[in-house]
Amino acid sequence: MSLPRAHADSRLIDLVPGGCHTYSKGADQFPSNAPSTILRGRGARVLGCDGRWYIDWGMGLTSVSLGHAHPEVNAAVTAAIADGVNFVRPSELERRAAASFLDVLGGDMVKFCKNGSVATTAAVKLARAFTGRPLVAVPVEHPFFSYDDWFIGSTEAHLGIPDEHKRLTRTFHYNDLGSLETLVRREGADLACVMLEPVKFDEPAPGFLDGVRALCRRNGTVLVFDETVSGLKWAMRGGQEYFGVEPDLSVWGKGLANGFSACALSGRRDIMALGGSRASGDRVFLVSTTHGAESAGLAAMIRTLEIFEGGEVIAANWRRGADLKARLNAAIAAADLGGCLHVHGYPCLLLIVWSGLPEREALAWKTLLFQELVREGVLFQGVMYPTPAHDQAACDETVAAFEAALPRVAAAWRAGSTEGVLEGPAIKPVFRRFQECAQTRCGRIYPDAPKAPCCLASMERHV
Questions:
Q1: At the topology level of CATH, where does 5-62+312-415 sit?
Q2: 312 has a pLDDT exceeding 80
Q3: What pTM was estimated for this model as a whole?
């Protein structure tokens, strides 16, 4: 059954704050013609509530690493849940999952949970206990580590976070070792951990990751690699394997279980054991969640890791991504947009970039491109994650969709404006301040609310 977009959006927004359970999936992150909900997925395609099938390149924010509704993963989950999903003592599946995880992804000990924010916060807690220090350092270029106070308090979305928590997070610049050295010189005695994604879309500068590793070791600071995104993409063990730099603690998430909920914190025994029952002295109350090791997620994780290990999944993803990147950049050049639009990043995780524009303008042009690609049957948010489900047909259709959409975008670019061609509001940054509309009788809160009275027209602009 399909639903009119406006009805589906209204129903979700009225029932769920933000209209979704992770802000990156919200209506303000997509063009107005995108389906507001998804009915089902198969392989690399999803069926929207509008009744159309789309080629999906976002793949559950890159968590679906093999393809939607993968039959082998689903079969493993079905078999596991037939025996029950949660027990009064640890399940045998937990032991198997821990042994399998550590064998494949390394580390001395592992703690499972259901989302990456819990794992990164657990890493911070361990680092503070291990070092006796309060401060955390993260790169300003990496936009998200956790919804918990220690990180979200450092963003624009810090409402509800006590000031004392905001003051405990410091920033430095990725690929600028000097900025971290300056921070260590100034506050190294209080620095518990440095947390970063080892790689995102830009290549680490020569010696940068090794330099961070050495600096943390000299200062007695715990080094945490957040491999939530990079794990199972650059290599099985993510950026640390690909670049040959070993952290003290690692966070794992997206892709571990082909979209099922399974995340993990792993690392050195002397640090991880602080959260165990054998710890001498006070124990770190690390992660204690009823559903942290329920059977469905762990069974999906075990089978997903087996499939990745048993074939050349990652190598094939790289080949597929490299070919797609070259073909899309060729299509962009053919549309005479090569000076402002390009496909950036490693073949395993591509990013569509509008360059040389202020953020607000770039968001409008991104929205126009995404709008025209939705029209051609391609759904994504600018990040393209090649998986085994993206076969040659899906890639060929994607290139054809770009070739059909880009001339319309190019025409607007030559005219110098998205005015009149953008069908709805431009997508918004996830982290942004909200303010009350200037018309007090309106009483609603809008992003970037204008300093003008509310009317139907202005409401449409800032909803």
A1: Aspartate Aminotransferase, domain 1 (3.90.1150)
A2: yes
A3: 0.89
